[in-house]
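Me: I'm a chemist; would you kindly supply a protein sequence with its structure tokens?

Assistant:
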Amino acid sequence: PGASNTPQTVVVNLTVTNPANVPCDFDHDGDVDQVDFGRFQACLTGVGAPYTDPACAGGDLNEDLDVDAGDTDLFIQCYTGPGGDADPLCVF
């Protein structure tokens, strides 16, 4: 109050976006690493053996209702290592 340059206006732009849904990033930390592989590995069922744990749906990367070698190949395609930038399109 009382200042010769009052009031002042400052323009602030804020963009809020949803984080990308990244296949294989099970811990949602932006990379695909050994922590994610541990969760994926716990869901491995084998060819034609459907997973029963709903938490394993994210491991069914080729959407054939099991978690097997085909899904493992896709997981490896998405692997970035710790701190890497996960690619939301890595399985497409």
In short: The radius of gyration is 21 Å. The helical segments are 34-41, 69-78.
